[in-house]
Amino acid sequence: MNQAKERPGITSISFKNKKTYILDRAMPLFLFLCAAVSIVTTIGIVYTLLSETVDFFRKIPIFDFIFGTNWSPLIAPKAFGILPLLSGTMLITIIACLFAIPVGLACAIYLSEYAPTRVRKIVKPVLEVLAGVPTIVYGYFALTFVTPLIRTIFPDTGVFNALSAGLVVGIMIIPMVSSLSEDAMQAVPRSLRNGAYALGATRFEVALKVVVPAAFSGIVSSAVLAFSRAIGETMIVAVAAGATPKLTFNPLESIQTMTGYIVQVSLGDIPHGSIEYGTIYAVGMALFVITFLLNILALWVARRFREEY
């Protein structure tokens, strides 16, 4: 009778072991497939960009593309120099970073060193909500609110201009700078702060001379990632910056960025396989290379200046 009572238990244990064995064998394969999706997707994107870009450069000399100062692939006389698009992209990005990095860093210092816990729990999620606002909303905010403000100060400013688009792109990337920088500051050991306080330092001195240097790698990484994010922004610049590829550094003029050009051409009736169609991939490849190099720079900075305690 005792053996009969034990059999169900023995059978159950055997079943569980077999089930666990199957899961142990299947789960690594499932996780590998999940990881492979991103790798295969990246390879597919790079292959598509490369194949179309190589086909484009068989028709247009790469020297003219990189160093040309006129960009007019849709209107005769046609020109394929990317410098006007590159200068417009850099102008927007620099304006955005000049606005976002100081403001984001100040927010991070406040949240990390000054804000009470209750305030921090409210302010940080509110800041991060900005990251969830659709960029098309930011674009019309720049066009209908920021641009009129700028025109009250500078009446000659165009309806479409780089300054309003750059400022609003800066507003968009503030949460990235503040959140990543604040996380880096929170990782600084409390003992470093206490040591500085014991030597008579004020809270501001502790923040600037102890916490910020100790979290320098995280802060720089956040700035580089924000720079990379600003370069790739599309809808804000497409709505507010205009569509005038111009080699200028005047922020009050209309310009066109690389992403803005891709949007403009993608909405038109460009035939597949034409030179005009190939410009989308050539500009996209240039954008991909720039953001790729910036991401590598961010990783290098994070490893080079990382402080371990």
Rg over alpha carbons: 26 Å
Helix content: over 70%
Order of helices and strands: HHEEHHHHHHHHHH
Mean pLDDT: 86
**Count, helices:** 12
Strand content: under 5%
Question: Could you describe the 3D structure shown?
Answer:
This protein is an all-alpha fold. Helix content is 75%, strand content 1%. The protein has twelve helices and two strands; from the N terminus they run H-H-E-E-H-H-H-H-H-H-H-H-H-H. It has helices at 2-57, 62-67, 83-114, 117-129, 135-153, 162-186, 190-198, 203-214, 216-231, 235-240, 258-266, 275-304, and strands at residues 71-72, 79-80. Strands 1-2 form a two-stranded antiparallel sheet. Helix 3 runs antiparallel to helix 9 and helix 11 (258-266) packs antiparallel against helix 12 (275-304). The longest helix has 56 residues, at 2-57. The chain is globular, with a radius of gyration of 26 Å. The model is unreliable at 1-6 (pLDDT under 50).
Can you describe this structure in just a few lines?
This protein has twelve helices and two strands. The protein is mainly alpha-helical. A two-stranded antiparallel ribbon has the order 1-2.
Question: What's the SSE blueprint?
Answer:
Blueprint: H1 2-57, H2 62-67, E1 71-72, E2 79-80, H3 83-114, H4 117-129, H5 135-153, H6 162-186, H7 190-198, H8 203-214, H9 216-231, H10 235-240, H11 258-266, H12 275-304
Antiparallel strand pairs: 1-2
Helix pairs in contact: 1-12, 3-6, 3-9, 4-6, 5-6, 6-9, 7-8, 9-12, 11-12
